[in-house]
């Protein structure tokens, strides 16, 4: 316990030394990240420290409990996905208070756990803004990183995307759009399904759903995405 406490203190001291007022200000003004307990450290510096520390599940838990923004970012990089429990995912998700923490934890840790798909479904029905965003950030992360799962789970998840698209809160609708776009970039079949949904949403009577649909359509029907999908299709023939 003493050794772990020492590691936490050392990590916090390392982060504090590399913090800056300018970075703290940019977090809010440039990126829209509200984090009262922040040193103002770049993501690249946090990743540098994570590499030095290596995987350490217990250290990650202790870092998370400090409440510092950068310590929680660091926790996402050093935790061991194999040891992350469903209960831990729920606890951490309840602590999400900005999109930076939410998306990073989902993108570098939660999507690698065996509980990821279940949490997509569960969290998509939650009311809390950042827990609900986490459902779609996690779905987007799975779409980008999970190379073994077939199309069916992603096709089923489009129903969650359609329901979530009507949420008018900015961070939720952006998460929904990210999930829809990431799903539609996996292959041509999923692109067809995602584009069909995006077209329906773009014609919705609800402003949030229209925004999601139009935002997704711009990317999913773009020449760049089409060329990428055609190249992927050619390689699998």
Describe what you observe in this structure.
This protein is an all-alpha fold. It folds into 2 domains: 1-79, no CATH class; 99-237, Serine Threonine Protein Phosphatase 5, Tetratricopeptide repeat (Alpha Horseshoe). It has 14 helices and no strands. Helix 5 (69-78) packs parallel to helix 7, helix 8 runs antiparallel to helix 9 (129-145) and helix 10 (151-164) packs antiparallel against helix 11. It is globular and about 55 Å long. The model has no long low-confidence stretch (mean pLDDT 96).
Task: Give the termini separation.
Answer: 55 Å
The count of helical stretches stands at 14
Major sheet attributes: none
Structural class: mainly alpha
Order of helices and strands: HHHHHHHHHHHHHH
CATH topology of the largest domain: Serine Threonine Protein Phosphatase 5, Tetratricopeptide repeat
CATH class of the largest domain, named Mainly Alpha
Secondary structure: helix percent: over 70%
The appropriate CATH architecture of the largest domain is Alpha Horseshoe
The quaternary state of the protein chains shown equals: single chain
Beta fraction of the residues? under 5%
Counting DSSP E segments of at least 2 residues, the number of strands comes to 0
Number of domains: 2
Q: How does the overall form come out from the CA principal axes?
A: globular
């Amino acid at each position: 316990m003493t050794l772990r406490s020492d590691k936490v203190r050392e990590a916090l001291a390392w982060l504090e030394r590399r913090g800056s007022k300018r970075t703290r200000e940019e977090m809010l003004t440039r990126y829209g990240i509200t984090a009262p307990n922040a040193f103002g450290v770049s993501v690249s510096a946090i990743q540098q420290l994570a590499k030095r520390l290596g995987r350490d599940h217990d250290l990650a838990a202790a870092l998370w409990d400090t409440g510092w923004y950068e310590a929680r970012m660091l926790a996402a990089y050093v935790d061991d996905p194999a040891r992350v429990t469903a209960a831990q995912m729920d606890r951490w998700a309840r602590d999400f208070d900005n999109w930076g923490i939410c998306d990073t934890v989902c993108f570098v840790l939660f999507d690698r756990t065996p509980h990821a798909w279940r949490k997509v479904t569960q969290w998509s029905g939650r009311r809390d803004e950042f827990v609900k965003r986490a459902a779609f950030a996690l779905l987007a992360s799975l779409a980008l990183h999970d190379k073994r799962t077939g199309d069916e789970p992603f096709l089923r998840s489009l129903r969650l995307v359609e329901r979530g698209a009507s949420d008018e809160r900015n961070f939720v609708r952006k998460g929904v759009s990210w999930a829809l776009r990431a799903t539609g970039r996996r292959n041509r079949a999923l692109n067809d399904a995602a584009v069909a949904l995006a077209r329906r949403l773009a014609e919705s009577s609800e402003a949030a759903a229209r925004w999601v649909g139009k935002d997704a359509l711009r990317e999913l029907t773009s020449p760049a995405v089409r060329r990428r999908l055609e190249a992927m299709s050619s390689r699998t023939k």
